[in-house]
Specification:
The complex is a heterodimer of chains A (about 800) and B (about 110). Chain A is an alpha/beta fold and about 800 residues long. Chain A is about 30% helix and about 20% strand. Chain A is built from 27 helices and 37 strands. In chain B, the strands form 3 sheets. Chain B has a 4-stranded antiparallel beta sheet, with no helix packed on it. In chain B, about 0% of the residues lie in helices and about 40% in strands. Chain B has no helices and 10 strands. The chains are: A alpha/beta (about 800), B mainly beta (about 110). Strand 37 of chain A pairs parallel with strand 2 of chain B, so a sheet runs across the interface. The complex binds siroheme, flavin-adenine dinucleotide, iron/sulfur cluster and FE2/S2 (inorganic) cluster (FES). FE2/S2 (inorganic) cluster binds next to loops of chain B.
Chain lengths: ~800, ~110
């Protein structure tokens, strides 16, 4: 088949990102030609600010070097400006750097021409020394001017203007910022935050001239600009004028070719222009009335556009919410969403002028719609996530403005203090990755997402407790280019674009009964998925279609295949179940005998009230299980995404304070839930009175006995980030505890995403949802309870199944070693 | 030439699974079978922290190590970027439904 020809005009961040995405999903579909007016390969435009400030060099900010284009077979014309698109003959005409005309045909054309800086029409705008701030050339010119001249004037106090002013000031120039409204960054900040920022920048030596209209740029004797004159008649000296008065989508080429434009090239949700062979992405495009000027939304566009170019047909771009962060070292400003004070909006403000902290959050209909933070921006990412997810905040409204601080500095989403940490500070305790390594990887490899950082540095890829910190580092290193993933729509893994929610829905609606069937039906990109998606798919099929779906052992993590926990040296641990934490002399004797017989090096009491035999060889597992089975013991599932333990205290059976029979109820709950697979592990506890010796407050389901019955708490977690369980319901007897707990757990089994503990599930769907399905609707509760019991019926102990497998049987075979 | 040693029947290795072979000269070797019924053999020792690759999840022509998730390619034993490292691959073939392994590199002719 003839390859299609794809031509791209504009070699900037959005366009090249589209090619990278395309290369991932359809590497051989197109012959690609790229025209870039600048003489450089694709670089990280955002980081021009640190380059100007002297914190980085041009070399540091190259994203794709020439070798990258060569490796991917892309024909690159650098320093070549496209002058015309001929839609009838489907070709583009360019002038290359030697002045020659180049004509290239296309089947698909991608316009990614970015923006042009807006130059207000005052006289003198063409004088030498008057520049805008957009590319490497401008940056070089400013750096050169700073070595030679004294006075700089920056016109426009938006993000770009202030970053330019900061850079020039750091390079020793006397900088005045001229702005035509009452406070700086008025589009991103409210008045108070704007004034605080101005005061801080003044302390760094910048001067501001507010409410000023420039009337003329005046030339000096040399012909170079020498002064800026204002409408009020005053003028100030200027050897360099940087105009940062806004940007305009670069639509010249498209307009000339008769493509519909309206403040940008108008595109649909698949980034096609009115000519379906022609796509547009980036700052030049106008999607649903918005032309974006920050990279995060442009990268989202790039992904959808690549998907459509690859003829995959899934994925739509639906617009983005954006956030901004000023990249001036030492100053923290964050803003997101709408804070203009629309109808029905309410403000919560925390202002401490002494500490230099200002926080304003705007609520509407119990949702966060805007946030401005000054001085203390550590909660920016958290607010932005709440805003994007449109999460109902009524439950946390009373402490919302104080931020996510109760999560401490290892919070999942909030993060903390990362910006002020030294490079040597260890961020990821699991993989021993320090801050400097992460920052370096972000800068050198051009990383923008948490996933990228995980892949390249391993930080936050294990327990995930440092996720908040890594997100912080990303945000402070790449500025507004960092887009926290949308928790609800994140793709399962690189094998698909579908989210966990999409997959769950498809498994239910199309009755998908096995991993391979699901992969085929959902168009998985890889032949058999990967170690991330296969276990998730397997769980979704099994939990949605109990007794009908086929379990695929090879799609389970080794622990669930070997029915034991793998250890760092490749040996395994054996944890027999002790119902409710109870055992007998006979069981203890059998455990002791087995430990001796199989030379178990370590015997330990676990945190879950049972005994762990650590360091067993895989070949010995069926044998040791069989010995334990003779004493009546079964698997403790200490290894599975499954029911773990039901911890109990001695309760009213023995304790002088006990109000309820905690051990008895604990054993009943554990027997009911035995053999249950779930999105993540599930732990319960039953305490006999509010002294709570079984720690019910940090369990997925915690039960506390009181005089008149039981209180049930849900969504607790004692692990990576301690989460106190929330009060759910008060019930009168054991039967009700069983029914209500089972119903909640079943709902979690049906709706939870794979590897989502109950606390994260609860945070995602909200307590109200659970209350409706379990408390308010008795039929729904009973149905859930029954579904759980149905799914668990006829479960048999996996240890017994494997160890009773006759020799040569296929189950036992996997444990045997072939000697040659 | 080193001789081929018979290991087991192809059917004794689960699809998308593995078996462990213990050789007196080479130590532990993991023998994998993918969904296309191709068979591969690697030293059963992850270049990262010596994890047993035989216990990993097999996908395509790659296995994900069970301990910390490095991915190792069957054909050449190379680790998938951004991680770096390699594992020794062994020549392996299927003949008449049986799997054969070559335990030491063939000596040069002559
Ligand atoms: C054996 C035990 C430690 C002990 O010696 O006490 C243990 C051992 C492991 N825990 Fe744990 N946890 C053990 C009790 C706990 C507890 C306490 C409890 O259950 O009361 C917690 C906190 C409570 C909780 O989960 O809410 C706990 C929180 C974790 C976490 C963090 C979970 C979270 O959602 O934040 C992990 C990581 C994970 O599951 O992803 C983990 C993972 C692990 C793994 C399975 C790590 C792994 O994936 O290989 C450890 C296996 C070690 C091995 O080589 O065998 N373990 N782990 C405990 C077994 C209890 C049992 O009888 O089954
Ligand atoms: C100093 C600075 C700091 C910034 N900081 C941030 C930040 O902190 N956070 C953030 O999110 N965003 C920031 N931005 C904005 C961000 O860089 C842009 O949103 C992004 O680069 C736009 O990508 P694009 O591909 O649409 O356009 P560009 O990256 O501008 O690429 C367009 C390319 O097309 C070329 N081109 C145009 N016309 C033609 C033609 N006819 N023929 C051939 N080539 C052509 C141009 O030369 C240019 O190289 C900053 C921008 C600047 C200048
Ligand atoms: S829960 Fe109450 S009754 Fe039970 S052991 Fe603890 S203190 Fe005693
Ligand atoms: S030992 Fe294999 S990934 Fe660490």
């Amino acid at each position: 088949m003839r390859k299609l020809k794809l031509v791209m005009v504009g070699n900037g961040m959005a366009g090249v990102r589209t090619l990278e995405e395309l290369r991932k999903i359809a590497p051989d579909m197109y012959d690609i030609t790229v025209f870039g007016a600048e003489p450089h390969p694709n670089y990280n435009r955002i980081l021009l600010s640190p380059v100007l400030a002297g914190e980085m060099t041009i070399q540091d900010i190259i994203l794709n070097d020439l070798q990258w284009y060569a490796d991917n077979g892309i024909t690159l014309h650098l320093g070549a400006r496209v002058t015309q698109i001929d839609r009838r003959s489907r070709s583009v005409i360019a002038t290359d750097r030697d002045g020659n005309t180049v004509t290239v045909d296309y089947d698909r054309l991608l316009i990614a021409t970015g923006s042009t800086p807006f130059m207000p029409p005052f006289p003198g705008r063409d004088l030498p020394g008057v520049i805008s701030y957009r590319d490497i050339k401008d940056t070089d010119e400013m750096i050169a001017a700073a070595t030679q001249y004294t006075h700089a004037v920056v016109i426009g106090a938006g993000l770009l203007g202030l970053e330019a002013a900061n850079g020039l000031a750091l390079r020793g120039m006397k900088v005045t910022v001229v702005h035509n409204s009452e406070w700086i960054m008025e589009r991103q900040l409210d008045r108070t935050a704007g004034k605080m920022l101005q005061a801080e920048l003044e302390k760094k030596g910048m001067r501001f001239r507010m409410n000023s209209q420039t009337s003329e740029l005046v030339a000096g004797e040399s012909g170079r600009v020498a002064a800026v004159k204002f409408k009020d008649g005053e003028s100030i000296p200027a050897d360099l004028v940087c105009v940062a008065a806004g940007i305009r989508p670069n639509v010249e080429l498209a307009e000339k070719a008769g493509i519909h434009c309206n403040r940008g090239i108008v595109v649909n949700d698949t980034l096609q222009t009115y000519d379906p062979r022609i796509y547009a992405v980036g700052e030049c495009a106008n999607h649903r009335g918005t032309a974006y000027g920050l990279v995060a939304p442009l990268f989202e566009q790039a992904k959808v556009c690549a998907n459509h170019l690859a003829e995959m047909g899934i994925g739509r771009y639906q617009g983005s919410v954006t956030s901004t962060k000023l990249k001036v070292t030492g100053i923290d400003v964050f803003s997101a969403g709408d804070f203009s004070g629309a109808d029905g909006a309410e403000d919560i403000v925390l202002h401490d002028p002494g500490l230099g902290v200002y926080k304003r959050i705007v609520l509407k209909d119990d949702k966060l719609v805007g946030a401005v933070l000054y001085g203390d921006t550590k909660d920016g990412a958290w607010y932005f996530q709440l805003l994007k997810d449109e999460q109902d905040i009524s439950d946390i409204r009373d402490h919302l403005v104080f931020g996510n601080a109760h999560l401490g500095d290892v919070g999942h989403k909030g993060g903390n203090v990362a910006a002020s940490m030294p490079d040597s500070a260890e961020i990821c305790g699991c993989n021993g990755v320090c801050k400097g390594t992460i920052v370096k990887a972000i800068q050198e490899q051009g990383l923008f997402t948490l996933e990228d950082v995980r892949k390249h540095t391993k930080a936050s890829s294990s327990c995930g407790s440092c996720t908040g910190l890594v997100e912080q580092i990303l945000a402070s290193t790449v500025g507004g280019a960092y887009q926290p993933a949308d928790s609800n729509n994140k793709a399962v893994c690189g094998c698909t674009d579908l989210s966990h929610g999409d997959v769950r829905k498809a498994v239910r609606e199309h009755k998908l009964l096995s991993v391979s069937e699901a992969q085929r039906h959902l168009g998985w990109r890889t032949p058999n998925g990967c170690a991330s998606c296969r276990p998730a798919l397997n769980y979704y099929c099994l939990s949605t279609w109990p007794h009908e779906a086929t379990d695929d052992p090879q799609s389970r993590f080794i622990n669930e295949r070997a029915h034991a926990n793998i250890q760092k040296d490749g040996s395994y641990s054996v944890v027999p179940r002790m119902w409710g934490g109870l055992t007998t002399p006979a069981e203890l004797r059998a455990i002791a005998d087995a430990a001796e017989k199989y030379k178990v090096p370590t015997v330990k009491v676990t945190g879950g009230q049972r005994i762990d035999l650590l360091g067993v060889k895989k070949e010995d597992l069926p044998g040791i299980w069989s010995d334990l089975a003779k004493a009546g013991m079964v698997s403790g599932h200490a290894y599975g995404k499954s029911l773990r333990t039901v911890k109990t205290c001695v309760g009213a059976e023995h304790c002088r304070f006990g109000t309820q029979r905690a051990m008895e109820l604990g054993v009943k709950l554990e027997k009911m839930l035995y053999g249950m697979w779930s999105p993540h592990k599930v732990k319960l506890a039953v305490s006999g009175c509010p002294r709570n010796c079984a720690e019910s407050g940090i369990k997925d389901v915690g039960v506390i006995g009181v005089d008149s019955g039981y209180e049930i708490y849900i969504g607790g977690n004692g692990g990576i980030k301690t989460e106190v369980a929330q009060f759910f319901v008060k019930v009168k007897d054991d039967d009700e505890v069983m029914e209500y707990s089972a119903a909640f757990i079943q709902l979690y089994r049906e709706e939870g995403f794979y590897l989502e503990r109950t606390c994260h599930y609860l945070e995602r769907v909200g307590m109200e949802h659970i209350r409706q399905r379990v408390l308010e609707d008795a039929d729904s509760r009973r149905a859930l309870h029954e579904k759980l019991l149905f799914a668990l019926q006829d479960y048999s102990d996996p240890w017994a199944e494997i160890s009773n497998d006759p020799s040569g049987g296929s189950l036992k075979r996997d444990f045997e070693i072939i000697k040659v | 030439m080193t001789a081929w040693t018979r290991i087991c029947a192809l059917a004794d290795v689960p699809t998308l699974g593995s078996r462990v072979v213990e050789s007196s000269s080479e130590g532990r070797i993991a023998v994998f079978r993918n969904s296309e019924n191709q068979v591969f053999a690697l030293r059963d020792r992850c270049p990262h922290k010596a994890g047993p690759l035989s216990q990993g999840i097999v996908h395509g022509t790659t296995v994900t190590c069970p301990l910390h998730g490095w991915k190792i390619q069957f054909e050449d034993g190379q680790v998938v970027a951004p991680d770096v490292g390699c594992v020794k691959p062994y020549p392996v073939k299927v003949d008449g439904g049986d799997i054969f392994l070559q335990l030491a590199p063939s000596s040069p002719p002559g």
